[in-house]
Amino acid sequence: MFSRAYKTVVTVPPLAWVAVFLLVPYLLMFCYSFWSVSSLQTIVHSWNFDNYRDLLEKPVYWQTLLRSMWIAARVTLFSLVLGYPLAYFLSFYAGRRKDLLYQMVIIPLWVSYLVRAYAWKTILGSDGVLNTLLQYAHLTNHPLDFLLYSPFAVVLTLTHIYTPFTFLPVYAALEHIPRNLVEASHDLGATPTQTFWKVIFPLSIPGVLAGATFAFVLSLGDFLAPLLLGGPSGIMISNIVVSLFGAAYNWPLGAAISLCMLVLVVSLLFVSERLEKKWSFS
Amino acid sequence: MRDLRHPGWISFMTSPITTGHAGADSAARPTLLSIRSVAKTFGRNAVLRNVSLEIAEGEFLTILGESGSGKTTLLRIIAGFETATSGEVWMGAERLDSQPPYRRRVNTVFQNYALFPHLTVEENVGYGLRVAKRPAAEITARVAEALDKVKMTAHARKKPSKISGGQQQRVALARALVNQPQLLLLDEPLSALDANLRRQMQVELKSLQREVGIAFVFVTHDQEEAMVMSDRIALLRSGELEQVASPREIYSRPATAYVAQFIGHTNLLKAEVTAGVARCGFLSWPVTRPDGVALFSLRPEHVRLAGKGSSSGDVRVRGRVIHQAFQGATELIRVDCGGGLILVARTASGNPQNDVELEFAPSDAIAVLESPERI
Amino acid sequence: MEFLVSSNPSANPGSRWLLLYAFVVFGFLYLPIVVLILYSFNGTGVGGFPPRHLTLDWYRTLFGDGPIWDSVLNSLEVALAAMAISLTFGIPAALALDRADFPGKALFRRLVLLPLILPGIITGLSLLMLFNLGNVKLSLLTITLGHGTALISVATTEVFAGLQKLDRAQEEASLDLGANYWQTFWRVTVPNLKLPIIGAALLIFTLSMDEIAVSFFLIGRDNTLPLEIWGRLRRGITPEINAVSTIIFVFSLLTIVLWYRLRVRAEGSADLGAELVTVNDREGT
Q1: Per-residue burial over C113-122, b = 16 or more CB atoms within 10 Å of its CB, e = otherwise
Q2: DSSP output for C216-258
Q3: What is the pTM for the complete model shown?
Q4: Total of domains in chain A
Q5: Which residues contact B373 (CB under 8 A, 6 or more apart)?
């Protein structure tokens, strides 16, 4: 139905733009990762695997990567623990308030990330809201140190940021479940709890997978929260990359790390997509 | 026009018209389910008003009605998915409606089957048994038996998305029956099937019910379907029962004008009765009714072309044919008999006609009550 | 039809706990925002409990703060320009994905969506490499190009979803009645896509206003608002930040109310979740 001219006009400009501004940059990054930086702070275009060797050998790099993955895993778990029941409640128990409550979950998403991360800093600081509150209520005598500038703070903040991200796909999946399946389950003798585990949860798995993937991938690559709240023990892999493009001036190494992250993310997406298909029944 | 002085009116208002016996061999069947004055309101919408009905063990009862009549709501109240605003439902000596659906010995076949997409046919059928934690061997045996009854054994390992609508319907049936409920509810289960498959399933369902011996409560808007399958029909209109009787009874002795028109075709004659003679248009025939306005239902098959087979006492009238609807073996002709009267007659298929003479026996004109307005 | 459990709470005592849990989660989601707003009025600045001396001082300081307003202006310019770029390329991209087959289509689709899920710094630094190669000086322009590129996927996803809902027959009817492709596009396709396009525009604008990760690498002399705030934060917390954050929050609130109104007007809210999932960016990575 659509002429060749139409299809060409519609395809070429975006393709061209994306090629220039996405494909080429990524390819450049690929190239850089095999180059190195000289002592004179210039890029040396000799092809080698030095950067990758550094990544594997120097503990600071792979340890940070592991720590980042561990933080991301915890964030994913906690956001699911918070987001799933919330979605379940909204979908099945909220009745007429459903839309309003849904909006209320979305609103924080639209509020600046920086603002929210900064707010946590205010709350968790040694004379921040939480500490002064605890002391005011005589629950503690002195400020709790671990609250801020620690992995704890990073996990907490990222969980806060990404809970709506796990909520959304789970909610969508739950909404897609025909209510007559729930009625059928009750009709056949299953209590609401049995119905949840035998019918509702299995059918919501694609949503859970999607939410978990978002939360994990996005928190893995986060650099703001660790910078603001992580302290020295809370540094994540993206912070290293940022510094390699800044003060530590080593673009090739930074490119190498970025490429690893890219590969990791793409693989995770691939696996997640496969699993989602396997678990989708309608 | 309603005649509120009619003696039958009062009793009509307070209870549905249950006429005749509940079918050939159910005369002595004990009551299984007792629906007592159930009413249901959604917001300001009164969907069910004062419905009382007794369902006998092992009977095939159809709740028949148009959309909006409340039939599905009534079913859902029995199943437990809605709670009645007032009234009670009893099964045997126990109050049914105080229990959640998962504790009732009632199972439902849903309109869109509601098969679990993530489970195979087998797993779907065995769901209720697994939930009740029956031993594995028992589950396997009972599931196999149920699948065999509905002829779906060959598809046991498939997922619902891979079988046709008719097959899904059988699986839904098996899934409900395998739990040996005391009562099976069917919510318009055949409405999604095409006509031929539907007719086939009607017959199969009926024989299945006979075989299994469980009471079936079947909801439909299709009066032909109701007639084919039921031991009794409960006709629901705007939330109240209009008549509860066997198919034959409800057809040949409709209680109200609505019943007469809803089930099959009829001619509704509004006549003025004076001194034992009913007059309608140019027609008049003897009746034994008090004076006043009365409504009569005359089935087209009782209106014949005058000629062979008439008896004395038959009422005759001439008229002009205004429409002929060929229906295969017979046809329905609409005849303008003058005086504002149009009669529909069922005749053997023949050549197109213009002027005809019709006749009918006065006893075939059944007096019916006008159905009251329901606000 | 209400779900049966909500009309029969006695049947499920677990639902009480669920309600409580939902409350707790909502509280967690809103705690920082509430604290922020509260403390923007706090006379003694950041921290301390309870807040004392409610005052508008910080807002007053804010209004006199030149650099902040410069950065707001910069951000607005960038956001509007990015919107233009993303829509200009995102809409045809959606059409292409919906209607055309071409070699590399699968790759194209993934490539376009990549910036959404990949940490923003990767997109940022790879663009930096590009500009470095081309000897392009870093400025608001480079930031704009970065945002525009990264956010194309927002436009594409929204418009693509809208196209799925579009009745093909309408366009066929238009062609049948004698309009050519260009006319059909403007008279039939675009009006039907009004809602997704506006929604995408709002989203792109908001995301661009808050964007840090990509901007981080592409910044020249002029700051955008988030980067300006960021710079201040490094030097220590000032309560002024609370004030500006509160204002940003209010604007976000207004934007989302507007967006919601637009959506609900045309269609039910059932698919909001599904689309937001694929569309909504995360800030700060």
Answers
A1: bbbbbbbbbb
A2: HHH--SSPPHHHHHHHHHHT---HHHHHHHHHHHHHHHHHHHH
A3: 0.84
A4: 1
A5: none
Nearest 5°: phi and psi at B342?
-120, 125
ipTM of the complex: 0.87
Q: Which of the residue ranges A229-233, A247-251, B323-327, C120-124 would you say has the lowest mean pLDDT?
A: A247-251
State which residues form the domain around B343: 265-368
- The answer to whether residue A203 neighbours chain B at the CB level (below 8 Å) is yes
Does B228 share its domain with B305? no
Query: Which pairing describes strands B267-274 and B277-280: parallel, antiparallel, or unpaired?
Result: antiparallel
- Contacts of residue B307, defined as CB under 8 A and 6 or more positions apart, other chains included, come to B357
Window B:80-99, CB contacts with C under 8 Å? 80-83
**Structural domains of chain B, count:** 2
Distance CA A95, CA A86 (A): 14
Per CB-CB distance under 8 Å, the chain A contacts of B79 are: 183, 187
DSSP characters over A134-172? HHHTTS-SS--GGGSSSHHHHHHHHHHHHHHHHHHHHHH
- Chain A CB within 8 Å of residue B102 CB: yes
Q: pLDDT tens digit string along B176-223?
A: 999 999 999 999 999 888 899 999 999 999 999 999 999 999 999 999
Residues B254 and B306 in one domain: no
Q: Do C102 and C227 sit in the same domain of this protein? A: yes
The DSSP secondary-structure symbol of A228 reads I
Tell which of B110, B113, B133, B142 to mutate to test the A interface (max A CBs under 10 Å).
Answer: B110
Residue B279 domain flag: yes
What whole-number distance in Å separates Cα of residue B290 and Cα of residue B42? Answer: 42
Q: Are C133 and A255 in contact (CB under 8 A)?
A: no
CATH of the domain at C112: 1.10.3720.10
Q: Do C249 and A99 touch (CB under 8 A)?
A: no
Are A172 and C277 within 8 A, CB to CB?
A: yes
The alpha carbon of residue A70 is apart from the nearest alpha carbon of chain C, in Å, by 17
pLDDT tens for each residue of C146-169: 999 999 988 998 899 888 888 788
| Residue of C35, C272, C285 lying closest to A223 (CB–CB) | C285
**Per-position DSSP letters for B227-246, written without gaps between them:** HHH-SEEEEEETTEEEEEE-
Phi, psi of B32 (to 5 degrees): -100, -55
Looking at beta carbons, which residues of chain A come within 8 Å of C112?
14, 18, 22
Q: Give the minimum alpha-carbon distance from A278 to chain B in angstroms, rounded to a whole number.
A: 11
Does residue C38 sit in the same domain as residue C134? Answer: no
B107: which chain A residues are within 8 Å (Cβ-Cβ)?
187-188
Chain C contact probe: residue of A15, A111, A126, A162 with most C CBs at under 10 A = A111
Distance from A149 to chain C by nearest Cα, in Å? Answer: 14
| Cα B96 from Cα B317, distance rounded (Å) | 56
**Residue whose pair of structure tokens reads 């050519």 in the numeric block:** C180
For residue A165, the enclosing domain spans 51-278
Q: Does residue B33 lie within any of the structural domains? A: yes
B30 and B166 share one domain: yes
Residues B112 and B232 in one domain: yes
Q: How many whole angstroms separate alpha carbon A255 and alpha carbon A31? A: 8
State the residue for tokens 């002595």.
B28
C4 touches chain B (CB under 8 A): yes
Q: Characterize C140-155 residue by residue with b for buried, 16 or more Cβ atoms within 10 angstroms of its Cβ, and e for exposed.
A: bebbbbbbbbbbbbbb
Residues C29 and C123 in one domain: no
Question: Does B374 map to a domain?
Answer: no
State whether C28 and C67 are in the same domain: no
